[in-house]
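task queued by scheduler; priority normal; single chain, no ligands, no partner chains; default sampling; output format set to structure tokens
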Amino acid sequence: MIAIFPSVLGVRQGTRDAADEFHRAGHEVHIVDIFEGRTFDTYPPAMAFAWEELGQAEMLRRALAGVTGLADGFVATGFSLGCMLAAYVATQRPVCGVVMIAGAIPVSAMGEQWPVGVPAQTHSMLGDPWREQAEIDQTVHDIEAARAPIDVFDYPGSGHLFSDPTLPDEYDAKATRIMWDRVLPFVASLR
């Protein structure tokens, strides 16, 4: 089972496309919609809604509530803001792996510890304007401190949600295909 935590833009077609990729590879998918159907086309109103109206504590609460019906051992997969949610859920529920796309969130920043032995991947573009190398480095540190492996995959380009074809200014078809060629075997190895 794959639990997908969408970006700050909400559950858009790009999220459903990602779910379809996992479905085609034989996985069951559960999309966690912490925005309860609300979507955004641009980042400023999305960020205001997420951080000012909901707030971090409520987002984390909704993320955890969104997986209550899942059996232990699912893969938590997040896109951008969803990386924070996926990483947090991994500290609260037994998961078999975590995939972070367009972000990497150190759980130590939330006062949590990475679950011992749980492997992870992170995928982002080197020129992503939202990329924070210090967060990636701390994420690697947190995961390695828990005796778990993490693969950090960097792609040339500047798109943030580079795997979302509905965002033409960010989408990169070549990087997306390479990403899925890395994500799907990783997830399959966790079964």
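post-processing summary
- Strands lie at 2-5, 29-31, 74-79, 95-101, 120-125, 150-155.
- The CA atoms of residues 91 and 115 lie 6 Å apart.
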